[in-house]
Amino acid sequence: MRAASTRGKFLFLVLIGGGVILLDQVSKFYIHQAFRLHESRAIIDGFFSLTYIRNPGAAFGLFAEQDEGFRSIFFAVVSVIALCLLAYFFWETPKEETLGLVAISLLFGGAIGNMIDRFRLGEVIDFLDFYVGQSHWPAFNVADSSITAGISLLLFHVYFQKDGVTGRTPETRREG
After folding, report:
1. Chain centroid, CA 80 distance in Å
2. Is 126 considered catalytic here?
3. Which of 24, 117, 126, 129 is the catalytic position?
4. Which is higher by pLDDT, 61 or 91?
5. How far apart are CA 112 and CA 28, in angstroms?
6. Of the listed 24, 117, 129, 144, which one is catalytic?
7. Global pTM value
8. Domain residues of the chain, as ranges?
């Protein structure tokens, strides 16, 4: 019985996580082929452009100024630890907790999407550029969006649908 429920759970990981990886890598391949580095094309004037950027750092360019050798080792170690933790949480999440499984699958796909860039290029391709006037949000990509959505869903799941410490739902918290 456990094998059947495990297969059902892994369908989330394959379809959602795999879909994120595919969409992320295809979109980055397109940007790399169709744009010159730092080229920008307005999609919605004054608000959104596709802009080809290479980010050697982490979110918001953190660690971008560090030595390349340090960054390579640091991001490899952090990625492996994060993926191991995600795999553990995925394995431990009951198949009935659909939102939790979707959230972890989004995180897993996003982490692998950016990890592929780091191993292949030594940096991450970013291209989604939102701005108002001269004020730009740091550019990001599909993998980053998936990670953000996964974290948001996971927080919603833990806070509103399940007590992360006791495993009780809001209904059972009121009862007990």
Report:
1. 14
2. yes
3. 126
4. 91
5. 14
6. 144
7. 0.84
8. 2-175
